[in-house]
Fold this protein.
Amino acid sequence: MGVCFTGAPVAGAGPAADSVPARTAFSLRTPLGGWGTGNEDQPRTALSLAKLYLADYAVRHGDGADLAAAERAIRYSDDAAADTLGARYPQAIGAIAAEYGLARTAGGYWGTASTSTADVATFLLAKETTDPGSPLLLWMATAAPTAADGTAQNWGTADVPGVIGTKWAWSDTGTAEVASASFGPGFVVVAHTTGGTGEHTADVFAGIAAAMADTVLPG
């Protein structure tokens, strides 16, 4: 059984948002509306979620030679592939931010870019609703069990019932940070945690529970 809203999610955080630890920013979007924690608009390190913006630009504005690198950047979270795309399209992240109205997204090099969970959710919902044939969604749906650097890709928003595809992200140095972004039939869920994958996954489910508690029911 997947995530199912019988009404419209509250726009912005409702009272139940306090149940999600501040270490995590969380956003859920459906065509009916959106829900998020109070920090969902906070710019955070984009990590490998920036590869979503980079690959989308390369797919739509590049040439066929970019497809293999774009696929590896999404399915395997391959940094080398992302570096190849970034060198060819240094303007990509800024262009995608402008196109999709991602006000909290900035940066040239993907590895130092910033974004918010709300921006990633807005972007993925737009892809799902207006460009459902995008290779980006196919690659998320066929992500490899193990990333190019050996990291397991089986945690976070990927564990939400009904999810079809996911992009994971994590820090390699410094403070531990992880993020994940997933889509399913009629919904998108994104989270970013200062912490590890266990904390992240627990906070994702706290966010799902809070969003459902704050849903506005018909009548």
Notes: The first strand starts at residue 24 and ends at 30. The mean pLDDT is 92. The radius of gyration is 16 Å. The domain at 15-38+46-213 is CATH 3.40.710.10 (Beta-lactamase).
